[in-house]
Give the backbone structure.
Amino acid sequence: MSTLHLVSVNLSGRTELTAQLRAAASADDSILFMGSGIYSLTTLPDLSGKLLALHADVAATGFSPCSAVALVDYATVIRLTEQHERSVSWS
Amino acid sequence: MTSPLFIQHRAPFDGHAAAELLDALLVSSAFGQNPTVLFHGDGVWQLIGPQEPAALGCKSLAAQLEALPLYDVENILVEQESLDSRGLSAAQLALPVRAVSRSELPSLLAEHSPVLRF
């Protein structure tokens, strides 16, 4: 069963956290970057799973995540929590 | 029914994460949920003893964690890679734990729900 990973800290410079997330995430998982987590997306992170960023946080900051990352709204986030069996918060 | 997994990644005496984890474990166990706890990252420092934090106005965390089996919290795991990168070994820890590899994270997640990370 799949997992929704919530990343709310910048992974840049956090090599151990990044390695743990990389090990934990599987191909059918979703990884949602929110808050300061969006700054992890200056380049495409080497993670398996669907990469998503919260549109409200991207719009609020003016930051442009790399184009391969899909932007999602809050309604989609709620749908994601329904579609995955569990969520894990990485902070 | 799947059982909960609690993950601790914070060093001892770093905010309230340690106390929150203990509360969550004891409540979960009291309700018969058979919780599992994994220490990784700086969370492994919570398992080092002896801790004498009286000067901080705190009790030894390791001493409290040692009591977990008395409250039927038996599944206490530590990530081997987190120990290795800190020059620690499972034998140095204040309580008996089972070392698991980072590569076991996906199966660990798949076996548990919900997952709470402190």
Observations:
- The mean pLDDT of chain A is 96.
- The helical segments of chain A are 15-24, 55-61, 74-83.
